[in-house]
Amino acid sequence: MTTSQPIDVAGVIRQLNESNDALEDQYVRARAAADQATRAEEAAEQAASIARQAKITHRAIQAEQDRHAPLPRQVMLALLTVALDGVACYFAAQALDASQDTTLVWTLLFLAALATGEVGLDLYRDHHKLAWRYLVAFLAGFVVLLGLLRFRYLATTQTGDPVAATVGATLFTAVTAVLVFFGYRALRAAETPQAWRARQRARTARRVAEAARESADRHAVHRDQLVNAYLGQVRRVALRTCADGQLPLLEAAAREHLLGKGP
Question: 3-class SS at 124?
């Protein structure tokens, strides 16, 4: 009975590389691709770990709050409510009998006051209740003042009818008050800046992890192509030098060697 010789994978590879420069180049490229694939896989795993931690952090911050609407969207909604007040504020500014440019400046100042009031209501609601009440009173008085200015404008320059001017000014005032309330509620529903930053970090980390995983997969495919191509040459040599039972063992050892996991 014959005893099988130990598998000398290094000898087979050396013999193969010495037989042809192209095969030696293919071997070098396969080993380099294996190293690159290993580094890419490690980078992908690290990026995935960072993404998981960022997601957990975001969820932990959000769990403490009941405000989950995206901050940028809610800010845009609040700005929209201010912009819709533009016509009403313009009518109020015209009551000051100034030039066109000055009227526009007053309109912008009125809009800025309303926007600042909405932001202030949101900021003071939770931690400065007294300041919040004062701000509510100020905004209410400011909205009424705008209504009086609109009444003056409508009564003196448009309808000339006090009843019609009163109805028009009242409608504009009600619309202004409703829009301020909606803008405030939009900001109240928005996530906090801390939660928004955590969500942005989690989203960025997720995208980085996805890109790293795609890169690792591409490197793995390239590595497998080169390794399989070189193993085909190893198999060709092994068929002439190894017993049939040793061929699968030799291929497995050669693959481990090419992947940098064996001697």
Answer: helix
**Contacts with 136 (C-beta within 8 Å, 6 or more apart), sequence order:** 121
- Cβ atoms 148, 169 nearer than 8 A: yes
The answer to pTM > 0.85 is no
Cα–Cα dist 217/65, whole Å: 39
User: 66 by DSSP, 3-state: which?
Assistant: coil
* Rg of the chain (C-alpha set): 37
User: In DSSP terms, which residues pair with 69 in a beta bridge?
Assistant: 190
- Residue pointed to by tokens 């801390």: 194
Q: Residue 94 in contact with residue 153, Cβ under 8 Å?
A: yes
- Token pair belonging to 115: 């926007």
pLDDT of 241 reads 65
Tell me the backbone φ, ψ of residue 69, rounded to 5 degrees.
Answer: -70, 145
Write out pLDDT tens, residues 115-125.
999 999 988 88
180: Cα separation from own chain's centroid: 29
Cβ–Cβ under 8 Å, residues 97 and 196: no
Note the pLDDT of residue 178. Answer: 93
Mean pLDDT of 88-106: 84
pLDDT tens digits for range 197-207: 999 999 999 99
